[in-house]
Amino acid sequence: MKIAVLGDIHANLEALTVVLEEAKKLGVEKYICIGDIVGYNSNPHECIEIVRSLDLLGVVQGNHDSYISTQNDLTGFNPQAAAAVIWTRKQLSKEELTWLSKLPLKKNINIRGASTKISLVHSTLDNPHMWGYIFDKYTAEASMQYQIMQLCFFGHTHVPLAFDKTFSGIEGGFYKEFEIKPNHKYLVNVGSVGQPRDQDPRAAFVTFDTKTKKITMHRLEYDIPACQAKIRTAGLPERLATRLAIGQ
Ligand code: ZN
């Protein structure tokens, strides 16, 4: 079975649409979402509706999902992100806000017939509510100490890095495709559907094939100008539009 893992969609309907069309073509049967469905871009309602309509194995809460669905103080958010949080709070129904607020911070999933067991978290397994960033093997190690399952998908940095842990240590880096090996543990950032930050503006998502044990990164062009135009019409900060074109 092929599973698509979607992360940091951030209300980007143009990117999400292209990603789901490709997933269908690839024969994906189930979906995982590692959070931040909303924030930054201008289609939060549509993206929530689409995610909820998918055949989901699991979905966890991201920091934007959390801040948007509560009245929590926005200290620590940069001004553009905070402006988008405040804007998004006004776009969603009470029912949608409640749904976002009740998402778990982490989740373990057992897939029937598949030997690989999977954890999901938006930021880190060690302190998921602190929203820390994993960019190197030291922060990866801290999270992996709490990783019971062989494979953990995460997001939050919008930078697709994979960490591979064995008895001899941890290695990490960018990836295109690799195979899960026994006696290894993996912590895999699936990149961002709606706001990539690895200097590649194409939408990112991952597929995991439970039979071949292959993890594959996919990058897809989408209609960035259309998404930017809607950000401007909504009155969201200009920087949220310009960053999409440069993948930052
Ligand atoms: Zn995010």
CATH superfamily: Metallo-dependent phosphatases
For the biggest β-sheet, the strand order reads: 3-2-1-11-12-9
Per DSSP, what share of the residues sits in E-state strands of 2 or more residues?
A: 15-25%
Instruction: Enumerate the distinct ligands.
Output: zinc ion
The secondary-structure class comes to alpha/beta
Helix and strand sequence: EHEHEHHHEEHEEEEEEEHH
Report how far the terminal alpha carbons are from each other: 33 Å
Q: Determine the mean pLDDT.
A: 96
Tally of contiguous helical segments: 8
Biggest sheet record: 6 strands, mixed
The poorly predicted ranges are none
- Tell me the count of domains: 1
Radius of gyration: 17 Å
What is the number of beta strands? 12
CATH architecture: 4-Layer Sandwich
CATH fold label: Purple Acid Phosphatase, chain A, domain 2
Helix content: 25-40%
Report on this structure.
The protein is 31% helix and 24% strand. The mean pLDDT is 96. The protein has helices at 13-25, 44-53, 63-68, 79-91, 94-101, 137-144, 224-233, 238-246; strands spanning 2-6, 30-33, 56-59, 106-109, 118-121, 151-154, 161-166, 169-174, 177-179, 185-189, 203-209, 214-220. Strand 1 (2-6), helix 1 and strand 2 form a beta-alpha-beta unit. The two termini are 33 Å apart. The chain has 248 residues and is α/β, with parallel strands linked by helices. Bound molecules: zinc ion. Zinc ion (ZN) binds next to loops. Residues 8, 10, 36, 62, 64, 156, 158 line the site of zinc ion.
